[in-house]
Amino acid sequence: MTRSRRTLPAVAVLAVLLVVGGGWLVWHSSRSATFGWFAYAPLSESVYSPGILTTTDWVGLALVAVGLLALGAVGGYALGRRRGA
To answer: What is the DSSP letter of 39?
Structure first.
């Protein structure tokens, strides 16, 4: 088995893990509570602004982007290589 045939599935698995891990980070990033006691403006110490992304969000989005780029590279290589050569 050639080296590229062994590394291709490994890179694909790593890319899928990056996409899933980045998505998990974005989904579970720590945001302030938007309900209940802590959403009451006079008692909260921060101002709620829904448009601002946290550092965890940016890291998660970067991981998703790198994972999707790697999946695209693996797919392009797998589709573009010559058969029998």
So the answer is: G
